[in-house]
């Protein structure tokens, strides 16, 4: 049985709270008796540059690229916004507003999946600062999938399911990640897409 990585909670106490303030020319974070230098740096990165905006265009491109070649897909598009934020008090939140994945099929039909999500929970990072642990998840999500034929007839459901946000699929998740002031990348091997890119703001 694989051991879960040792983690450091986002609630770091007064000592680390001081390091979560100024972003310009930050000093190297000092380790504490309970938090490694790597974990402290990762936690500060997540908090200082929140909220993070998910690159939905990249998600859409990776999803469509993974559709088997024998499926009759001509193209597609994505709309909406999705953001993730981290608080210094160990809380995180993810919101998706008006997200819609649309596929144009070879027979003239269109498949559309709309997603509205508001998820929140607790978070921590591994001592190595490279694994994000999400727990205590509370998710409010609405998904609607429809197919519209060339004559305008609409039916429920789609033949090609849209991507699911991996951090809202289970009650708890352990996700590899890297964080810099320019980019947060969450890796999900075996899932399409396998990487989720977010930028500050």
UniProtKB/TrEMBL annotation:
Q: Which domain of life is it from?
A: Bacteria
Signal peptide coordinates: 1-27
Q: Where is the composition biased (Low complexity)?
A: 144-157
Keyword terms of this UniProt record: Signal
Q: Where is this region: Disordered?
A: 142-163
Protein's UniProt name: Uncharacterized protein
**Organism (species):** Protaetiibacter intestinalis
